[in-house]
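Need tokens for this chain, all 57 residues.
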Amino acid sequence: MAKETTRMPQSSAGLMSFNEDMHSKISFQPSYVIVFCIIVILIIAALHVFGAQLLTA
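Here are the structure tokens for all 57 residues:
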């Protein structure tokens, strides 16, 4: 006969919950983050294109 085991429900199951009352002191709008990323991408692309000219000048 198979051994009968009792399985207890896992209350958290590896998930973490955070209090809704906690807020960060620093907060950005999502649009600001997207604009910042686009600016960084443009700067990196410009350095790839014009970087060698800046070093030899």
